[in-house]
Design a protein that fits this description.
By secondary structure, the protein is mainly alpha-helical. The protein folds into two domains: 62 residues, no CATH class; 61 residues, no CATH class. It is 45% helix and 5% strand. The protein has five helices and two strands; from the N terminus they run ββααααα. A hairpin with an 8-residue loop joins β1 and β2. The radius of gyration is 19 Å and the shape is globular.
Length: 130
């Protein structure tokens, strides 16, 4: 499965090799958007989840315009991998955390905007980080 800009050795001419490790890459085979760190992370994912599929020799070419929903999933993926979250809310803080979460849920359901939903989805990483 080669892209048009890829050589047989697995190098992509459309992207510099130094920036591949710092980019999040979407798995084209997963129904739900899943992102991984560079080509190596995607190859590890392919080996564990998509064993019947062949491992691609090159990353798929990134689209020029990333949609806002993809950026939300990338943000969530980064936060999940890098931000530790409290497992349990301390008793003394439960009321204030519950009120804050209720406010986020209410805004997301009443306004139904992407920013309100992003605030709700990132709530644990913003409020409950260790």
């Amino acid at each position: 499965m080669l892209n048009a800009g890829c050589s047989g050795s697995g190098n992509c001419s459309s992207q510099p090799a130094t920036s591949l490790d710092s980019q999040l890459v979407r798995c084209p085979h997963c129904a739900q958007a899943r992102y991984f760190k560079g080509e190596r992370g995607l190859k590890i994912h392919y080996g564990k989840v998509h064993k019947p599929h062949s491992v691609p020799l090159c990353l798929p070419a990134p689209s020029q315009t990333a949609t806002h929903s993809e950026s939300i999933w990338k943000t969530l993926s980064k936060l999940k991998n890098s931000t530790p979250v409290l497992k349990r809310v301390p008793r003394g803080a439960r009321r204030s955390v519950a009120l804050s979460l209720a406010r986020c849920v209410r805004l997301a359901t009443q306004e139904n905007t992407q920013s309100a939903w992003e605030d709700l989805l990132t709530f644990p990483y913003r409020i409950l980080h260790v």
